[in-house]
Design a protein that fits this description.
Blueprint (H helix, E strand, L loop, with lengths): L1 E4 L4 H12 L4 E5 L6 H8 L4 H8 L3 E4 L5 H7 L5 E4 L11 H22 L3 E5 L28 H18 L4 E6 L1 E3 L9 H9 L3 E2 L3 E6 H13 L5 E5 L2 E4 H12 L6 E2 L2 H6 L3 H9 L7 H6 L9 H7 L6 H15 L5
Parallel strand pairs: 1-2, 1-4, 2-3, 4-5, 5-6, 6-10, 7-9, 8-12
Antiparallel strand pairs: 9-11
Helix pairs in contact: 1-8, 2-3, 5-6, 7-9, 9-14
Amino acid sequence: MILVTGGTGLVGSHLLLELLVAGKKVRATYRKNSDLNAVRKIFSYTIPAEEVEFLFKQIEWKEASLTDIPALSEAFEGISRVYHAAALVSFRKEDTAALRKTNIEGTANVVNLCIAGGIEKLCYISSIATMGLSIGETAISENFTWHPEKDHSEYAISKHGAEIEVWRASQEGVPVVILNPGIILGPGYWDKGTGQIFSKIYKGLNYHFPKTTGFVGVKDVAKLAVITMESFVQNEQYIVVAENLSFKEVLDKVALEFGKEPPKKELKPWMVYTGWLYQSIASALFGIKKEISRRDNTSLFEHSYYNNKKVMDEFSYKFQPIEEVIAETVIAFNNDKNQSY
């Protein structure tokens, strides 16, 4: 049986669908108060309505947070392979302790159980946040070097710490693969994460910002997780980015699909530093609410490029264009817009 941690998240739910369609037996962890119906909704964006409930009922659900070792231990019973997708995503300074506890300590718990249980293989869904920043337009590859003295976000530090724990698993005899997705776009969860890009553009957003980074569709992340796990590859890391785009380009594409006016005004550094506008934009797009660090301020004006050649070449993989991802996501949003999101 396969275990998926974070089964109710955007990546976790799409990963569950990918595995179920392939006929795999899966168990998924979820936190208390998580909305399991959200997973049904994610399924409904991809498969016919009559198949949603059938596949959903194939999932064996287990309530277990990453820091609840007894519950997590029960979730590992009878498991042969693990997809670790659970994580805390936050750019709020006040969440520093929670980020480290969930992402580092929680991953250490997963790794310890993998080692103790003789798990066949572990896939960890990390982030390009651990890859650092590119110099000029030179794209970052998997051969990057982490520089602890650099001004990293607390989220990046926590995900890097989690990667160290996963590499520890490889040293203890558990084959691993680490995926580093860019900013993940896809249907669902319109009230948080990147789902808010779509809900805010639909309602009207006036400002854009120049940040350039890597973007990828959630279906590609789920597919590559399964592909790399089913392959003979082990103890490897892959950047999972479809395209390097500016946020202005992405916001414009979303607005175009909605038939809305794209954001016309560019966020300026002085606006961010004074803080009066940054709070509303950052909160709308990323859930950032208060106690913003200088690192979070400057990140909106950085340009980083990522090289996806390794994963494309090794698996002959072709990414879905971001324009198509956005179009599919807007269709799903429009189908849901009469419901509360």
